[in-house]
Amino acid sequence: MATLIRTAQRTLLRSSSSSSFLFQTTRPYSSDAITKSPFESNILRILQTEINYQFDYAPPHQAVTKFDSFTVQDRPGDQLITMSGKFGDTENVRIEATMFDGCVAVPKLGDESSGQDFALHLSLIVDISKGDGLDELEFVCSAWPNFLEIQKVYMLRRDALLAMPYLGPDYRKMDAKLQKALKEYLEARGVNDELAVFLHEFMVNKDRTELIRWLGNVKTFVEE
């Protein structure tokens, strides 16, 4: 296991800023090392120590590319991921999800626990369309560690550019029956609590991947 971690570290540190990717082989590191100042050498030592720590503490794994009927597109270095799928023969479902963008304090679990813990939050936009150029039904949602909640539902019109389009009422102020019906409509297309759990697991791994990639890119920049 230690050998695999060291191999992954060497691969990361050899990547360039334009082609850096944590799980692919990159160009060999140049043997023509440039003499660094004590200040730069110190930065490089700190960066290397932090990279080693991150790999030892919680090394990331290869990201998954499928969830249920959705295909995941994750571009290295991007704070968003995209998921695309189909519902029936006519509907396309597209999801854009952020990395973690907030948190709330929650009570710690357990009879003997006291104090507070934190639940991480991420945002997602779900577009449901029935063909190119046609209007789309768009949902703005919040994904918590184990459940999904709808914030907004509106029509995304493709045939007009309005300065201030009407985006519909606040979902939480809708009639309870309408709220339930819209939630079931979204769940039938695979956008549900299980998706929220998947996204949190995915983003925990992506967060670590992006951090290590960033550290490696900064180290490569200072080295060159």
Automatic annotation (TrEMBL):
One of its GO terms (cellular component) is mitochondrial matrix. It comes from the Eukaryota. SUPFAM superfamilies: Mitochondrial glycoprotein MAM33-like (SSF54529). InterPro entries: MAM33, MAM33_sf. PANTHER family: COMPLEMENT COMPONENT 1, MITOCHONDRIAL GLYCOPROTEIN FAMILY PROTEIN. This is Mitochondrial glycoprotein family protein.
